[in-house]
Design brief:
The chain is built from 14 helices and eleven strands. By secondary structure, it is an alpha/beta fold. The protein has two domains: about 190 residues, D-Maltodextrin-Binding Protein, domain 2, CATH 3.40.190.170; about 130 residues, D-Maltodextrin-Binding Protein, domain 2, CATH 3.40.190. α2 links the parallel β1 and β2. α2 packs antiparallel against α11. The radius of gyration is 22 Å and the shape is globular. The model has no long low-confidence stretch (mean pLDDT about 95). The structure holds beta-D-galactopyranuronic acid (GTR). The site of beta-D-galactopyranuronic acid (GTR) has 13 residues, from β3 and α4.
Length: about 325
């Protein structure tokens, strides 16, 4: 009897020591390589989570698409908690959470300032919470700049898109957008674009300058037309089941850590856009500015008229923070 009690106490003590010292390790997936602005922000997030949970949580980052170079697969991995956390584009996440597709509407924001005024507003932040029905918890937004078309043949105006094949992220709205602009859309993972352009399966794709560098696309697609049709924010998010099991204090620590990485990522982003642009120019990329975007905007008018009503409230919220001209 006495022996059992001692054994029980010993067991409880072991459990207590284990609970105090145990460290939970969570995986974070990132398709961009080390040193890319979002990857630097992932690292900052991991550092702050560790600090604010007093070492109880460790985030292991898998950059450069180590877990998968396909963001759709990454999102599925988070859904089943094969990976707990990931950083992806809202363009990819839109296929899992229809509300996010508002960002896939072309020419939605006037500028980066406009986008951030919305993302940091109450309705913008609420969109992160509204990932819940999809099985996710949104932690914060990151900058993904403006996306433009690039190709392996000279690109000077919207007319040059006609009849050509352009890669889009797997998302129906993005398919419709590219088709409204006159090209055929080919949905595929970012990791497949390089060889698809190289072998002529597609003629081009669309993205921001940092991604042209991170995926080496500038090496096979030398023409970049700055029509800036999309501003797709990036999202740091996690598996909701894992989140729900965290004590409130830990959830607060995760939120505080994520919130603090936003300014960090935006700064890193702005600096890297300049660096990436310099790099591709030095490597022979022909960049054509598009001072008048009217032909592009006209091409998507019909699409916006069809799709816009699905996002009426969010569009009104975005309009409410539009900077005065
Ligand atoms: C990049 C973005 C990635 C990925 C990629 C793509 O701009 O950072 O998360 O979405 O575009 O086009 O697939």
């Amino acid at each position: 009897m006495k022996l059992t009690r001692i054994a029980l106490i010993a067991l409880m003590l072991t459990a207590f020591v284990f609970a105090v010292s145990a460290q939970t390790v969570l995986k974070l997936a990132e398709i961009h390589p080390q040193g890319y602005p979002t990857e630097l922000a992932d690292e900052e997030f991991a550092k702050l989570v560790n600090k604010y949970t007093n070492g109880q949580f460790k985030i292991d980052i898998f950059p450069g698409g180590q877990l998968s170079g396909d963001e759709k697969v990454v999102i599925e991995q988070v859904k089943i908690n094969a990976v707990s956390i990931a950083r992806v584009s809202s363009g990819a996440l839109g296929s899992f959470n229809a509300q996010l597709n508002v960002f896939s509407l072309p020419y939605l924001f006037d500028s980066s300032d406009h986008m951030w005024a919305f993302l940091l507003s109450k309705p913008g932040m609420k969109m992160l919470d509204d990932l819940a029905p999809s099985g996710f918890v949104g932690l914060c937004w990151y900058d993904g700049g403006a996306r433009s078309f690039y190709a392996n043949y000279p690109l000077n105006s919207i007319a040059d898109l006609k009849g050509k094949k352009y890669r889009v992220m797997p998302n129906n709205l993005l398919v419709k957008m590219v088709e409204a602009m006159g090209a055929s859309a080919v949905p595929m993972a970012a990791g497949q674009v390089f060889s698809a352009v190289q072998t002529g399966v597609i003629d081009g794709a669309e993205n921001n300058a940092p991604s042209l560098v991170s995926f080496n696309h500038y090496q096979v697609a030398k023409y970049y037309l700055l029509d800036e049709h999309l501003r797709l924010p990036e999202v740091l998010f996690m598996n909701k089941g894992v989140w729900d099991k965290l004590p409130k204090a830990t959830q607060d620590a995760f939120r505080k850590a994520a919130a603090e990485t936003v300014a960090f990522q935006r700064k890193a982003w702005d600096a890297y856009v300049i660096e990436a642009t310099k790099k591709i120019v030095a490597e022979g990329e022909i960049i054509v500015p598009v001072p008048d975007k009217t032909p592009f905007k006209n091409a998507v008018k019909q699409l916006l008229a069809e799709e816009g009503p699905k996002f009426a409230q969010t569009l009104a919220d975005i309009d409410a923070v539009r900077p005065k001209k």
